[in-house]
Amino acid sequence: MQAALEALLYTAGEAGISLTELTQLLGRNASAIRQQLEEMSLRLAHDDNRGLMLELAGDRYYLLTKPTLSEVVQKFFAGPPAQGLSQAALEVLAIVAYQQPLTRIEIDEIRGVQSSGALATLASRQLIAEAGRKEVPGRPILYQTTPVFLDYFGLTGLDQLPPLGDDTSNEDLLAAFNQSLETEASDGD
To answer: Which residues form the signal peptide (predicted)?
Structure first.
């Protein structure tokens, strides 16, 4: 169960995950899961070879970087945005670029998977930013691209993205975005 807990905590990202959610996902009782979380927390805290720690804030559990490693993590985020955008981050960026502004939940629904980690990466690299809040219950954050996004891809405006038809699928959206990236890369050579 430890591996499954770790995977779920990692996947939950900055949103964290509640004990209730863990019990539903793992089909185990809360007491057994809480015990496993406590053991994981102690193991991570006392192992100097591990860079992560488990934290409970409110009713949510978070897998976080240990504070002693903040300097090395800050160096990573201080680098240029070009450093290793994952496929997931590129997918999220394409969705935001073409359909902005939209919420994390809307992005998750389009992708079919959780996108908090990719959103955090893109926001930390200033490729996306908050664009206000959606006027629905819970008032979720809306995301949009930034001027750094335009600079990063050599665009002067979003109108330079390849046009999409009304019947464009999510796969077509990602393909069009990747084509735009390849075109920009070859034009820069």
So the answer is: none
Using DSSP bridges, classify how beta strands 102-103 and 17-18 pair: parallel, antiparallel or unpaired: unpaired
Under 8 Å between Cβ of 142 and 129: no
Total count of domains within the chain: 2
The pTM assigned to this predicted structure is: 0.50
pLDDT, one tens digit per residue, over 81-127 is: 555 788 889 899 999 999 999 999 999 999 889 999 999 989 988 89
Q: What's the CATH code of the domain at 161?
A: 1.10.10.10
pLDDT tens profile 127-165: 999 999 999 998 999 999 999 888 887 888 888 887 766
The reply to whether 93 and 175 lie within a common domain is yes
Decide: helix, strand or coil at residue 125: coil
Smallest Cα–Cα separation from 87: which of 59, 68, 63, 115? Answer: 115
Give the domain extent around 176. Answer: 79-187
